Amino acid sequence: MKKECEICGEKMTGRRDKRFCSDQCRSAHNNRLNGDVNNYMRNITNILRKNRRILVSLNPKGKSKVHRDKLLAKGFKFDYLTNIYKTRAGKVYHFCFEQGYLELEDKMYALVIKKEYVDKD
After folding, report:
1. Each residue's pLDDT tens digit, 66-105
2. What is the value of pTM for the model shown?
3. Would you list the DSSP string of 76-96?
4. Domain residues of the chain, as ranges?
């Protein structure tokens, strides 16, 4: 018995777990799955990506300090982050994916990389 493509219904041969007859049908399936992504979600994702790129560019060695004005000048938006980590000592790190920052004195920020995010891959 031949299996049918989930998108176009064409009969397929090949692997048993094959779901689509072509790359076009596979792409159409993925586009349908992600079709609920609207402009609002896309804009938030773009802001988060930009924030991450800014942190990466200012923190090439994994630990550094930077003034708030430099982050703002590059377009960093402090209201957009992916998670917050609070240490036992009460320090609050804000993260944009694996890139993080900690507010210090005099509008300075310590930039860090959360190693357990990076080391999981």
Report:
1. 999 999 999 999 999 999 999 889 999 999 999 999 999 9
2. 0.70
3. --TT--SEEEE-TT--EEEEE
4. 61-119
